[in-house]
UniProtKB/TrEMBL annotation:
This is UDP-N-acetylglucosamine 4,6-dehydratase. The keyword Transcription regulation does not apply. It is an enzyme of class 4 (lyase). Residues 9-282 form the Polysaccharide biosynthesis protein CapD-like domain. The keyword Repressor does not apply. Its EC number is 4.2.1.115. Gene3D superfamilies: NAD(P)-binding Rossmann-like Domain (3.40.50.720). Belongs to the polysaccharide synthase family. InterPro entries: NAD(P)-bd_dom_sf, Polysac_CapD-like, Polysaccharide_Synthase-Rel, PseB. Pfam families: Polysacc_synt_2. GO terms for molecular function: lyase activity. It comes from Salinibacter ruber. Keywords: Lyase.
């Protein structure tokens, strides 16, 4: 992984689930010169300061700002070495109802990050993406796909010796905001869990794993790659059983803008994708470095034409017990519920 000691690092959307985990790991492992938390929500920053105090960690800086405002980014990016772009509007129903807002944040905000990074001579930028940006079926996914394209093409604007941009794309994050886990925890008390479709599958990754993947790719990025981790899939029915064993399942149907299965490497980009032991690297169609040289230097195997990395055809699957182990903070509540359920069923 990259050495962040003495570096000036900024994370947009830094008060989110990823930002807080990233902050915890960086403060634990490194001694950066500055770690800047940029977000637009002063309340979330106040709460985050209670957990990560600048008095205890003098490298911390909390900046109020919005990626929609390029002037603010231009000021915030001054003397910054590394930017992690995690800011996004990502609630699918909200994006469908308020379509221009995710476009302003996810697309235009991404463009502002790229321009500010180039203008301020930032060394490296990694943007966080999502499986919903591959073959998107909703507006949120479409904005993330557009943002991915912008960050990949950002290398063309920065030039051969300028800012390097890459993208990290991964699946559903355990414990992140918007996770179905709290919803299932609430509904299990009724004895019935709403299931969209019993065939549904999803990729799953923990917050710590997602941070480690970003840190690893900060080191190996050349610029223009979309990095995809090899992570396990899980069935929605297994998740429901892990959280609420013994509950009935009510099939309510797939919601608008939702997929039955998720894809992280679509068929149409397989010809530009290298497979490694623990990840895939989708190489840019246009780059100032040779893809064959990249292959020779980094290894990997070219994916076959029409290959697809999808949650339903994955080789790695989580069992119900493994899902329980990954759930983390909710594990205690789940174990308590299992004990109560066992007592009830034994009577």
């Amino acid at each position: 992984m990259i050495d962040l000691n003495g570096k000036d690092i900024l994370i947009t959307g830094g008060t989110g689930s990823f930002g807080k985990q990233f902050t915890e790991i960086v403060l634990d492992r490194y001694e950066p010169n500055r770690l800047i938390i940029l977000s637009r929500d002063e309340l979330k920053q106040a709460k985050m300061k209670q957990r990560f105090s600048p008095k205890e960690h003098p490298c911390l800086r909390y900046f109020i700002g919005d990626v929609r405002e390029k002037d603010r980014l231009d000021r915030a990016f001054s003397d910054v070495d590394i930017v992690i772009h995690a800011a996004a509007l990502k609630r699918v129903p909200a994006a469908e109802y308020n379509p221009i807002e995710p476009i302003k944040t996810n697309v235009m905000g991404g463009s502002n990050v790229i321009e500010a990074a180039i203008d301020r001579d930032v060394d490296r930028v990694i943007a966080l993406s999502t499986d919903k940006g591959a073959n998107p079926v909703n507006l949120y996914g479409a904005t993330k796909l557009c943002a991915d394209k912008l960050f990949v093409a950002g290398n063309n604007y920065s030039g051969e010796n300028g800012t390097r941009f890459s993208v990290v794309r991964y699946g559903n994050v355990v414990g992140s905001r918007g996770s179905v886990i709290p919803f299932f925890l609430e509904k299990r008390e009724t004895g019935t869990l709403p299931i969209t479709d019993p065939r549904m599958t999803r990729f799953w990754i923990t917050l710590e794993q997602s941070v480690d993947f970003v840190l690893t790719n900060l080191e190996r990025m050349e610029g223009g790659e979309v990095f995809v981790p090899k992570i396990p899939s899980m069935k929605i029915t297994d998740l429901a059983e892990a959280i609420a064993p013994g509950c009935d399942h009510e099939v309510v149907g797939i919601r608008p803008g939702e997929k039955l299965h998720e894809v992280m490497v679509p068929k149409n980009v397989a010809r530009n994708t290298l497979e490694f032991e623990d990840h895939f690297a989708i190489l840019p169609a246009f780059q100032d470095w040779d893809s064959d040289s990249y292959h020779e230097e980094n290894g990997g195997t070219w994916c076959e034409d029409q290959f697809k990395y999808s949650s339903d055809t994955n080789n790695l699957w989580l069992s119900t017990e493994e899902i329980r182990e990954m759930i983390g903070p909710e594990k205690v509540a789940i174990e308590e519920y299992r004990e109560r359920a066992s007592e009830i069923h034994s009577k």
